[in-house]
Description:
The structure holds two protein chains of two kinds.
Chain A: H1 2-13, H2 24-30, H3 34-63, H4 84-106, H5 108-114, H6 125-137, H7 142-170, H8 182-196
Helix pairs in contact in A: 1-7, 3-4, 3-6, 3-7, 4-5, 4-6
Chain B: H1 3-8, H2 24-29, H3 34-58, H4 67-89, H5 91-97, H6 99-102, H7 108-116, H8 123-153, H9 161-164, H10 181-198
Amino acid sequence: MEYFNIFVKSIFIDNMIFAFFLGMCSYLAVSKTVKTSFGLGVAVTFVLLITVPVNYLIDKYLLQPGALAWLSPSLADVDLSFLSLILFIAVIAAIVQIVEMVIEKYSPALYNALGIFLPLIAVNCAVLGGSLFMQQRGYSSIGEVTCFALGSGIGWLLAIVGIAAIRERLRYSAIPPALKGVGITFIITGLMGIAFMSFMGIKL
Amino acid sequence: MKKLDLIKLPFSKNNPITVQVLGICSCLAVTAQLKPAVVMAISVTVVVALANLIISLMRKSIPPRIRIIVQLVVVSALVILVNQVLTAFVYDVSKQLSVYVGLIITNCIVMGRLEAFAMSNKPLDSLLDGIGNGLGYGVILVILGFVRELFGRGTLWGYPIFEKLGLYNIGYENNGFVIMAPMALILVGIIIWIQRSHNKELQEKS
């Protein structure tokens, strides 16, 4: 039951975009059509699903204070947590490189549609943020961590597909020239954020 | 490009947040109060300026295939340094900023300026460009932090201004909504609106 709680919480209540504003740059830049947004959302979910559990293992057995005790008792007071950032990023960059090669081989159309934004998943705040939140919140098992990763990815996917669908329809609206494009997207994302705030009081 | 332009342009015409649309994530999350906003602005300026300088010094000897990895390593090292400095000297603010200091690594402004400028320009120009973009980012952060703290809590930098002015006695209430996350997005949208109304060439044609 705990797994389901974490899963639903990560999608709606702790939504990566509307609650924490992570991954906004590619969210704003790629959301012009629903198809590419969906492709990017799936790629980000996949990267999160792999990197967050791997980083959890690295954090648990290598980085936390006292984590190295399994190697030898004399290392029990070594605290390598200051290396977290660089190790997490290294894992993320490697996984994104692999995902990029896999997509290039199996779906060249999606690869061309995503263009530069596929390698940019490596610097997507949502992906690094997922690992950092996992470290900060202290989940107790790899199952919980996987549910968190899957939920966060799906939440991000929902947000980017939602704004893409709205922007596709906005093309036929009479928006003041100074607001066209980025300006109105910000305001609409703010309104969507207000809507998602309605989930805040839910206790699972 | 003249040296002074490198610092002036990112302030308004090429502002990283409102024109280049980079660095949005952190700008929205840390501006609920003025003090974390200023600390974040200084941190990002330091990281962008130094990263630009270092990568520009190395630019002729980085193999193209691994340049993203080299950039990430340099930026990560700088952010770890900045993180330790913040934890040591302004511990309460660093707790408020929590994961967002680490997220400076993935701050699009840093990577964006490295790719767009530092990889193909001289070190001094890159340093100035980094400082300029950091300041442009800082301006927006300070505006957001100022509005959100003043109207959301009635304080500025922790100093209870509205209370001292006696506004609560005549029935003024804090606008609690402004502290919440979505309001920052709407405020940035309004800033973009105002900026683009003044500078017609920034408006998108479609």
